Amino acid sequence: MKLNRLIGRFTGRRRLGALQRNDPDSVIVLPTPRRVPDELGVLAGTVSLALNRHGAKSVGFFRAADGGGFDSVGIIKDKYEGVRSRSGIAGQSIVDGLSGSTDHLVESIADSYERFRKDNQGMDFVVLEGFWLPGHSDGFMHEVNSKLATRLGCNVIANVDCQEDSKVSVASYAEELVRELRRRLVHVTGVILVGGSGRGLRKFMESRPFPFAGLIPKDKLLSSPTFSDLRDQLDADVLCGTKSLEGTVNSKKVSIATGYDVRDVMVERLELHKTSLIRFIHDNGGLVSIEELEARFELDKDVLTALDVDKDGMIREEDIVDYSNATLIVTSFDRTDILLSVFLSELSVQDSGKYSGVIVSSYLGGSGLKEIVDNAAEAYKLRLGSDHRSLPPVMGVKTALHATVKNLRRVTPQLSKQSERKIDRTIENFRKFVDPDVILQSISQPKSQVVTPSMFQHQFLQRAAKKQRRIVLPEGTEPRILLAAQELLRKHVADIVLLGNEQEIRSVAGANAIEINGAEIIDPNSSSRTQKYVEEFVKLRRKKGATVDMAKDALQDMNYFGTMMVQCGDADGMVSGSINTTAATVRPALQLIKTKENISIVSSVFFMCLPDKVLVYGDCAINPKPTSSELSQIAVTSAHTAAQFGITPTVAMLSFSSGDRATSPEVRLVSEAVKLARKLDPELKIYGPIQYDAAVSPSCLHVSRQRRTRLDA
Prior knowledge:
23 strands
């Protein structure tokens, strides 16, 4: 019979154990490649909904990586008092140190998240912001986030950036993203489009095969840079107007020093009717067609088209509210006449507000320009009863005029804790355009129960770290064993004992740059324990004729010495077999430790960590030709081993034929073993005889059952 006659198949459902009960539910919000401002609204809105459900002291916020885009941790902390928040890894330096390995990067983020949870006991729910750092490809970030979601077992809300794509291409991209995430066993509970345009796309998305949560349209306020952005990105000195730094800059209304834009008559009319327009659009549901506004208010169609942010022929109330016709002046340091003209205009009640601000190029400091600003501020204060901070912002930059204009085009809108108006708008947009029921479903649903290889390994290591057992490694001079020991010591998973000559072990470790200072090294040739082990060996093997000399010879073998450490209680377990044969590893345990009560045969299992699931194979190493009774014991003990590792098993007992139809001795042996195994553990789910493909593939099992039905007919 073949070696792999039994497979304990993990169904992907976790056993409810101590690890799982205390885990807070969580959701990961995946960022878009551009990380647009509206994503802050999704994060803040999700936190707000979680707060309404769980209470302020029970919600946490965790950002996977700190090093790019808006400060979501700081903003969330300021916006929602009591929410515990933290950033994970520290930006690009960590990523560079991990040499592009997504697995190590995910583990680093997950470790930071676990520490956050440990430091903040009592959290019922955590909102995680997915991994995003500038300079990384979309594929790299999606791979990290999908692995992180499966590693932590989180539900996922996916943001999709519409940009300027058609509704068909946006929908196709969203479907492909969800399909890829699901292929990686990620549980997608909501999809949100950001920066979309018009009702047509929203209706089109509602028919897609995934949980569509809403479309947040492009917002002119959020897509426009502020004077704070200009200050930060142009490295400018603010000479006056600090109160107006959060005002937006209209990139289409920039004038270079040689002259001023003359206001268009139709633009003046738009300014004249601005209040009436806002009221009319508000009274008509917040959305009115360009044609209707053109006819009712006698406005130029080109002006209205310029206001149409969504490019769908409709004007929103926000489009008019955010409209600003004020001009940004860019002038050089020697054109003080331009600066004076701006200030004189602002001092005029009629022309006040004509200019949004001034950028002075080739500015290297000095008192001349500052004196003009201070005099204008004093005049402004006397004329209008205000101080100079209410003047339009005036900034000085070191670059020449044309370089300044070029740099100005590169300024992008940002979000900071001081951008209160923009922050409030992102949250307002979330509440207005996102279906709260879909997000609440993401918050309410329990964590995904799929057990991926990374989750399995993490849970195993976590449970081991809580026990902190003493593990002996007989193959102390093998570099792979030393590397594993280093990792276990670094993560505080176990106390490690290495067997062998200390000088040789340290030499091998040094040659491979491996740190093993936390491990205990025992040389059997000089150990004080050897005499005790010799006596115990003789006692255990007396019926087999063992003598003191035989015991001393046997204990020169590292596997025998390690096994005696376990037998005598000096170690909790032994791991061997990387350079020793299976027989050499198992033989000492068979002779000295024996089998459990009511178990007559020793067997083995392999944990096979496949890309999307974990399978347990038994017995593929020790028993080449078991009887039906032995095979039944192998099945039950393999299942119990699976349960010890935190997963509820379903056992498939393999044969070259499914069912009881075949009359060959091999199939009858497996069939009898199935009956015996069910008697040994009536609660265990056991299937067989069954072929391998039917055991691991639901579709193959379905075909197999259909074939059997036809044969029965």
